[in-house]
## 1
Amino acid sequence: MKRKNPHNSTTETAKAFQDTAEGLIQPPPHVNLRSQDWPHWESVTTAKARDAWTTADLEIAAQLARTMADIPRLRSEIDIEGDTIVQPGTGNTVVNPRHKILDAAVKRSITLTRLLQIHPLATQGRSADQAGRNQAQRQTSDTAESMKDDDLIATPAKRRH
């Protein structure tokens, strides 16, 4: 059995550059995405290595992209209509039924994310590890900020319009 290269090897780095150069993964021919699904498709399919995607995964990724596109639309509709609506015919005030649809879409997106293994634990690692990376980022940002006025550090030139 061929041993897989460690994720930090030169071979894996070269493979990542090659995958990036190939551009966005396209959905299988039998899967149709709406125009509003494409930003979510890109977000989903770039969450793990290109060669980790199977056709079945891409079909599920399309469902996730569609669901992710539906969530802000549903939120916007609720914002316009309100949390409660007057029920036609009876005149009773009821909870906007879109809340139930939105809740189902959010739950579906979480389930599909787990199924595709692109949830935070799979993509970022354990929270203890992430805390260390966050601290390193803050320290780097603090150092960069403190060196901002240092004449020895080159700063980007401002663009002129």
Note: The first helix runs from residue 10 to 21.
## 2
Amino acid sequence: MRSVYSLCITLCLALPSIGLAQPLQTKLVSELLFYPEYRFSAEVEPRSVTTISAKINAELIEFVVKSGEEIPAGQVLARLNCEDLHDQLELNQANQQELQANLRLAQFQFDRLNALQGRQLTSDSTVDESLARKQALEAQSSALKIQAKLAQRAISRCEIRAPFRGVVRETFAGVGQWLTVGAPLLSFTQLEGAELAVQLPLSLYQSNEFGALMSTAVLKQEGQVIPLQDWRLAKQVEPQSKMMTVWFRAPKNLFIGQQTQIHFTHTAPFLPAGVLVQRNGQVGVFVVENQQVNFIALDDAQMGRPAKWPSDWLSKPHVKIVVDGQLRLQSGDSLTESP
């Protein structure tokens, strides 16, 4: 009965003009294989967005930069009114000058009394009092020097500078406003070290090809293909969507907040879904060898989806696969292929 069935199919294929069957069509596997590409939306995220605050109590007198302007590290962003601090520093310097004069006098008196004590011309208590006065003046001198350092440090905070190369996103104060320590002044976004954030399905991460896929990540812009490197993986999954976030180092020509797409290319070849058939609960393809068709089941293949070509068949690029007419075939059928 089987030979009659095979003979009937052979005659129908050999004589397509009779119209009993569609011509059988095959293609080399090398012509069918392709590498699937995945595209996922991504957004450029800054490494840091910081709120810069006032470090002293003072009046805001000037914003040096504007929102959206690119600022190099160390550039002045805003200036505060520090006249009081400058006056305090000048007063400190005057006090130090006066104290130094008193300290020189105290040192001279101590040296003189110490010499007289050696000749027993003065009492020990007088020398001790002179020494105590000199030491007290020295302590006052040290305190004034520390106060001067504090004043100079406060004055240095009158000019608020960029902590890194970035851009001003938003300002929170106006010129003439009195600022207290910790009052937010502006929001500053870091430009260096920006990353591309992309959400990928957890199932993709759990596949054996995840690491290989990450190595193929590219951006395609204006005809250019830009490889992406230095990726890192979030150690958490969104419970509802089952998505996870991966960050890549962003190319310098992208803007913070820019939306784009990252392309991943599968490193293993696949067959198109249209050539797949199902036999005995398995999904696979019919291959032609020596004018005979044989069914090859493909692991993890599903109808309607491209299927991964077995790695042990990659060395057989000249194998022919039935691409039209395979639905009526059975494994082992002997066929005459139509032109």
Note: Confidence is low (pLDDT under 50) at residues 1-22.
## 3
Amino acid sequence: MRARFTLPSGSIAALDNSEALPAGPHPVVLLTPGYTGSKEDFRPLLRPLADAGYRAVAIDQRGQFESEWASEPAGYTLQALAEDLCQLAVELAPAESRVHLVGHSFGGLVGRAAVLAKAELFDSFTLMGSGPAAVTGQRRTLLDVGELALAERGMAGLWSQLEFSAQADSKYADSSPALRAFLRTRFMATDPVGLQVMGQELRTVADRTAELAATGLPMLVLHGESDDAWTPTVQADMARRLGAAHAVIAAAAHSPAVENPGATLRALLDFWQSLR
């Protein structure tokens, strides 16, 4: 079910599986997408989570796809986006529990900022394909090239650049025409100012792993076996430093919820059930 949440910062678009749940209280999962992602990145998990008894709400972050754009660039900083997650957690949490927070990639950095600000709002935190600090390697290069393309040729030019880069990758797999059309529509609906500010955050964010560990919140580090953003080695080390559970998803790279939703679902459920 499509839903909208009205926050002080504006309207947030979401997918909410609550209609598939029986009446009564249920634990809540808040799913936060990455840099150029959206709520649809979690769609393969929503019905299975309902079947397992969890209400799951996947959002477009501020400025992404169908959510309202920020009124100024400062609205896209990690701290500003984290405030949205905190407000959503207050709205979603049933009286007897809090929220299981899941952040994918850049969404993991936003989630980390939310936990550091108000850990008491959350029952657990899962970093999915996310890292401890600024992104490096090929992903950093793509950010730098993309920033130039956006400045010189706008969103359409940047989309063409991203398509060219993806097709040049040896791991590129062609998508259906319908999926390609959706991905382009989603991208073109994104605020270009948001891309600039979020991209700068990805390039400069500091390592706050020690602070995150000090919250004492139960955590899971989950990533694909061939993640090409933050490497599996970097994420495994982050899990060790956090004292977190650690799950490696086979046959997956940077988007395990899409690439191997069954294994991703099992890892999430095993983690949450271990907390009871």
Note: The radius of gyration is 17 Å.
## 4
Amino acid sequence: MSECSLTYYRPVSPRANALPPTERRVAIVRSALGLIRERGTIPTTREIAEAAGIAEGTIFRAFDTKERLMDAVVGETFCPAPVSIQLHAIDHDQPLRPKLVAFVTVLQDRFTEIFDVMSALGLSAPPAGFEEHRGCSPETGHVPLEEQDLGVGSTWDPERRRLVGFLDHDADRFTCAPEELLRYLRLLTFSGTHPGISEGRPLTPEAIVDLVLDGVLITRTKKAS
């Protein structure tokens, strides 16, 4: 055996500890998702295995085909549970503006992830299905949520009803219903984050909140200040 035969061409990632099948699937999906977002392209199964610290064959023991793995990546991306959990964690007692900035930040992060994955996978519209993520079953690796706690996505209404309550204290300051304010924020966040609509210059959460709350016209109050 020569010295060369003991030398690897590339560093070998340390193998991950053995995980239950469900957790292993989740780890593979999230490794693939991270590479897709980082590179903007679909990685090879070897690259995914290296990122996950597993043997390449382990991927095909968890998923029949690479297409099934990519389906799982899309399901992970559109799952409502993570964004719902983040929205629930917003401090409702803080002042209005930072509270709304926190809300927009969560939405913007979600939209950015969705846009990244759709671009890399060549999707022109959100896929249908992924019912396994509706209530977030244990197989998704997320905290199971009740139906009324679903997140922002195709099932916007349940989460919106819950979120309206965190604006009750400031409702008398608005010229519209709190529900409409959240709708304005969501629409502007979507368009201000989409790389095509925003012309590659995404709006910051602070700018989005300022536009919705203050507009762009100079009022007497603004002149005085």
Note: The mean pLDDT is 78.
